[in-house]
Amino acid sequence: IIIMKISEKQFDYAYKEYAKELLYIAYGYTKNKEDSIDIMQNAYVALLESNKKFESNEHIKYFLIRVTINESLDLLKSANKKK
Prior knowledge:
Elements: H1 8-30, H2 33-49, H3 57-82
């Protein structure tokens, strides 16, 4: 069960407005389409699960970008450990 702090309308807006940008950011780090899609989806799951009170759409965008970058770096770190 997911308890949302943001409204469904805000989530839909955030998805429509920022999904492509998040994919580009993740791809810039990973150079892999499938990993980029997974990272983007993880960012939106983190948004849904977040207990933060978002003050604006820009705040939501910043949160999503930060999660995307962190997830991308985590993936790269884990890939380097496997080598």
